[in-house]
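If it is no trouble, can you show me the amino acids of a protein and the tokens describing how it folds?
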Amino acid sequence: MKKKYYRLRDDTYYPNRWYLGDIVNDDNNWRYSEGTSVKIPTNELKIEVYQVGLEMDFTITNAYCVPIVSQAFKEAVSAITHLQFIPVTFDKLELSTNYYVMNINKLVDAVDEKKSDFRKFTVNDPIRPDKAGQYSSFFKLIVDEKRINGESIFRLNGSSLKIIVDEFVKSKIENFNGVDLTLVS
């Protein structure tokens, strides 16, 4: 039976929610969005809050697409391999639980280019020529299960800001606030 996969996104339409900015005391926020393991910082990471609102179990930071998750979310997925959880704090907020950067350190080349509708950056791209050959946008994203090798959660090679989860992970996280899941297989 064919397995189903979903794109995990931040539910930006959740009412009265908070919006998070950068990790303010790390000069390379991208490291948490590249699909690779990171050295755990010795200092506690601080998250910028763009807009105060309801705490979310799952949030993606504004510029760098770094997942920030609650203690409950962390516990729900902690048995899954290729995840690192790094504690974070928030300036001027008293929180009801602990929060973490969820670093997904698995990158998978899984785009089914025959079934997907997308654009790629080109060598002469006026905005990001350094990303030539990588995906610039998807109008329809479909993943190829044969190329996933049984991974439960991963970032998409060629578009590492995209997070993909399988049905097992979906069942663990779908009821947390902030979670938006879209079928991609």
User: Anything to note?
Assistant: The mean pLDDT is 94. The CA atoms of residues 21 and 48 lie 5 Å apart. The radius of gyration is 16 Å. Helices lie at 71-77, 167-173.
